[in-house]
Amino acid sequence: MHSRVPKALSTTILTALVAVATTLGGGVARASEPEPPFQIVFPQDVTRTQFGSGFGDYRPGGRRHKGNDLLAPRMTEVYAVAAGTVIYVGTNHLSGRNVKIEHGDGWTSHYVHLNNDNPGTDDGEAPWTLTVAPGIEVGMHVEAGQLIGWVGDSGNAETTTPHTHFELREDGKAVDPYPLLLDAFTIAEQRQAWLAARLGGTLPYEIE
Question: What are phi and psi of 163, to 5 degrees?
């Protein structure tokens, strides 16, 4: 799990991470698949989030884990990783309440297990105003770093620590987002440190 990472990641390490190629099957792409033609921002507050890979891990029913879990306290803000158009806002028994964003060239990002609980409860009966940010609906354009919703444990995550299951897909095939998330995490952490030291400020999409 990662709550902090070194201030500088070597190109060699990053290259090695991206080059890892383990055949996972079940619609899961190798980590060596082409990266998206855009840089992502980290989708949660780096000071409150822990994460690891877990991509390709087995799940009940023969499923594979097709994303990374970003653990954070319930109602931590969730941000769009890149500019795009919202193509889905809905719920199902596995993903719970979730949002999907289309970024062009076949790339989509998915934000799963968003909040469905009223404050101080685990009732699963929260209004959608406690799930997604105002205006987040199908067809809406969002910018990188824009607030889209809040961390929760909806769907089959009800018995787990609140987290966002994050997926990145190319033409519908899941790609391990871990190297990109790790890089984005480091950049966000460095920017926070720089702003705190020089301006006493925060990132534009950071939780105050």
Answer: -165, 160
pTM equals 0.78
- Cα-Cα end-to-end distance for the chain: 24
Q: Could you tell me how far CA 155 lies from the centroid of its own chain?
A: 16
Dig out the tokens for 190 from the structure: 């460095």
Q: Is 64 exposed, middle or buried (0-12, 13-18, 19+ CB in 10 A)?
A: middle
For residue 119 the two structure tokens come to 């404050």
**113's tokens:** 């297990």
- Residues 6 or more apart whose CB falls under 8 angstroms from that of 194 comprise none
Three-state secondary structure call for residue 189 = helix
Q: Nearest-5° angle of CA 42, CA 56, CA 159? A: 75
Give the rounded distance of the alpha carbon of 164 from its chain centre: 6
> Is 72 in contact with 7 (CB distance < 8 Å)?
no
- Alpha helices (H) in 87-172, listed in sequence order: none
Q: Mind listing the pLDDT tens digit for each residue in 24-54? A: 333 444 446 568 999 999 999 999 999 888 7
Pair 96, 58: CB distance under 8 Å:
no
Contacts of 89-92 with C-beta under 8 Å, sequence gap 24+, read: 89/132, 89/136, 89/137, 89/138, 91/116, 91/154, 91/155, 92/155
pLDDT digits (tens, 9 = 90+) for 123-180: 999 999 999 999 999 999 999 999 999 999 999 999 999 999 999 999 999 899 989 9
